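=== RUN LOG ===
request id: a7f3
mode: sequence -> structure
chains: 1
length: 173
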Amino acid sequence: MDDYSFEPSYLSGWNLELQELIDSSGLKLRPLRRSDFDANYLDLLGQLTTVGDVNREKFDIRFDSLKAAKDCYFVLVLEDQATGKLAGCATLFIEFKFIHEAGLRARLEDVVVDEAFRGRQLGKLLVKAVTQLAQKRGCYKISLDCNDKVIEFYKSIGYVAEPGRSNMLVIRF
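=== RESULT ===
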């Protein structure tokens, strides 16, 4: 039996546009599995940013943490079932708030498509899937941080920089 990071049934009931994107991709959209350590999940993330030294033990500890934080972390992957290779991934993080009537706020994180699969609208598919999942989970908004070079990509999917709120401030440790 597969060990998924969240319940696979959450990834159903998409709107027609997204379902057509999924169907036409020829790939399977599913939750991250523990066995994806042995696939190319960490290499895939390495095409986005620095992953560092994550051995099997560290991966399992983090996987268990994500799984235990029910309804907070949703790591989606696109799998080429013929090869078992992961074509892309994205993460939805849901924050529990007291504001907005004890509402839920969503963040889109770690969107990456493997370089061998780029140019097939898979980034769009992943972003739309995470966005719809956030809506289905009852979030009042979803936001993201990105490099300047991909702002137009996110705008083309419907994300906007709100006036007076287009700043991201960071302290790195």
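=== NOTES ===
The chain has a mean pLDDT of 94.
The first strand starts at residue 28 and ends at 31.
=== END ===
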